């Protein structure tokens, strides 16, 4: 991709205008009319288009994967908005790379259709049941897997899951639709497909398998057994910082001479690591830099613990202190020191190296990426859905630290800052708008915790037994009181001073 000069008006993106785009804008060199579908992707947001769809596009640019084009899909009403934006532009997307060295643009064409969103998901089930589809991939967010703390890990009691059990022919959920499609393929002899989770979950393939097979077992035990024996659910790790799209992103696209209803900005770094477990074949991912390895978990743990947990270290205090973006947090003299201390002292010790990269080196890489001023990734976006992200990204590290006798003061402060943020008011008195699917309940508990901090930890579906932990609970309660009485920045300074004193004494 190469930089372009500024344009005041752009061409409305479509197949027809591709030859007329400014010379600096890269575009498909392949005949999109000849592409055939091989992948259905459910949850078609910015990340998928900047990441998985880009990798398929790169294969297509090499003359490969002509039968692995992507059909987009969704199961939520809001997915209709994205379909309405992409359909008139022939499902093309402008990707704008934001590097400290400059901006560049590329139009990708690996998606060739987007299924209608409808009650009962008939079109989605029908498409997935078609034998040409060999991979069904997912980016449905961490909260979309119906994870439960119960022994089998799947929330079978959820109303939408109960609906799918009673009405399997008209599924409401992603997993209900997958089960319905696999039932049809089993009956028709079309064979299985691979379910490829691309969400930020530890063991995302195993979690997807649990969701599909648990639901199938309650619908048809024989089908569940067939799925277990025939389908594959590879674990994967995905990595690329992709901000939400707003007025600035539309303006950037116009600056390249393109009117795109859904442009995507992204950093210059990407990584994708996948287990080679595909029951119905796969594209030649290795040829475009994907790491195909049985050692996904080590890469996954490094990324989730250092990058995803690091995002939560920054996002909540950034919201409380009215610091708008992650890059601005990294430029803040106190917040950045807080990030550095927590990462090096309380997170990196519980991360194993991967080939060529130590945890300390990866912390440095993440700090560099987070500091990119061209990436306007808001603290609000990163803080969204903390009720899914903190249990997945932060709490496992805390438990490892407690088990090994390591320091947890900074991580306890991270959790106290989240609790304070959920009260819905910043340090300057401005209102924090709803930012979690469970916001109303979280806000009520957060306000109660101002008087009795343990109330926050007594949310067992999030914290398990940590409310009674003799090390973590007192640290959390102490920090929450400090935040409420003295403010967020004062709490960070107190932690940094405490850590500095400890280092000097040592």
Automatic annotation (TrEMBL):
It is an enzyme of class 1 (oxidoreductase). Keywords: Oxidoreductase. Gene3D superfamilies: N-(1-d-carboxylethyl)-l-norvaline Dehydrogenase, domain 2, NAD(P)-binding Rossmann-like Domain. Residues 296-476 form the Mannitol dehydrogenase C-terminal domain. InterPro entries: 6-PGluconate_DH-like_C_sf (IPR008927), 6PGD_dom2 (IPR013328), Mannitol_DH (IPR000669), Mannitol_DH/Oxidoreductase (IPR050988), Mannitol_DH_C (IPR013118), Mannitol_DH_N (IPR013131), NAD(P)-bd_dom_sf (IPR036291). It comes from the Bacteria. Its EC number is 1.1.1.67. Residues 38-287 form the Mannitol dehydrogenase N-terminal domain. GO terms for molecular function: mannitol 2-dehydrogenase activity. PANTHER family: MANNITOL DEHYDROGENASE 2-RELATED (PTHR43362:SF1), MANNITOL DEHYDROGENASE DSF1-RELATED (PTHR43362). This is Mannitol 2-dehydrogenase. It comes from Falsiruegeria mediterranea M17.
